[in-house]
Amino acid sequence: MKVTISINLGGYAFNIDDDAYEYLQGYLKSLESEFEGEESASEIISDIEGRLAELFRQKLSSYKQVITMADVKDTVSVLGTPEAISGNEKGEKIPHSSRRIYRDPDSRLLGGVCAGLAAWFNMNMWIMRFIFILLACGGGFGVLIYAVLWILLPEAKTTAQKIEMRGEPVTIENIKESVKSEFNKVKHTMNL
């Protein structure tokens, strides 16, 4: 019989084995020490915890309600270790990228559909907007497609979703770079 602990991670409650909890605590502490000098350290850690919670939720089902050591180790292997970021670890595997379609709230004019599709197809968003304008002028078909996609496509709210939208793997390094980039954009905007 194993002891389980209830934790709150990324806004979700999880039951986790005590040994898995200890391993997760060590991982989170090593992340905190890795990003200790960063200006946006709390945002980076928060986004990583959110991604951990997303990955843990995928591991649970109606038959499996407890996060195990294997689940934590698998999740850590997907995100990567702090040592991999600093370059102290050799031969780490690079997780696969899964490109997903989202509406892009950061580059939107209306609903972010064109910006999201442009990220999906890896093209300039102005070209995608021009295509929709041409379709709208050619019988209004573009307006209908845009409205349907606005309803159907979810908005990329988290950093992990924004990374997935670009087709990059959701790793600690990519989360760190994305948060730092957004932090610098906000800082630059506030200075103007």
Radius of gyration: 20 Å
Poorly predicted runs: 87-96
> Gap between N and C termini, in Å?
60 Å
* Helix and strand run: EEHHEHHHHHHH
- How is the main sheet built? 3 strands, mixed
What structural class results from the helix and strand content? mainly alpha
Query: Average pLDDT across residues?
Result: 80
Summarize, please.
The chain has 192 residues and is mostly helical. The protein is 59% helix and 7% strand.
Which key terms come to mind for this protein?
9 helices; mainly alpha; globular
How would you describe this structure to a colleague?
The chain is globular. Helix 5 packs across helix 6 (125-137). A hairpin with a 2-residue loop joins strand 1 and strand 2 (12-17). The protein folds into 2 domains: 4-97 and 159-191, no CATH class; 113-152, no CATH class. It has 192 residues and is mainly alpha-helical. The protein has helices spanning 18-34, 41-59, 69-79, 82-86, 113-121, 125-137, 141-152, 159-165, 172-191, and strands spanning 4-9, 12-17, 66-67. It has a 3-stranded mixed beta sheet. The chain is built from 9 helices and 3 strands; from the N terminus they run ββααβααααααα. Mean pLDDT is 80; it is low at 87-96. The N and C termini lie far apart (60 Å).
Topology diagram in text:
Elements: E1 4-9, E2 12-17, H1 18-34, H2 41-59, E3 66-67, H3 69-79, H4 82-86, H5 113-121, H6 125-137, H7 141-152, H8 159-165, H9 172-191
Parallel strand pairs: 2-3
Antiparallel strand pairs: 1-2
Helix pairs in contact: 1-3, 2-3, 2-9, 5-6, 6-7
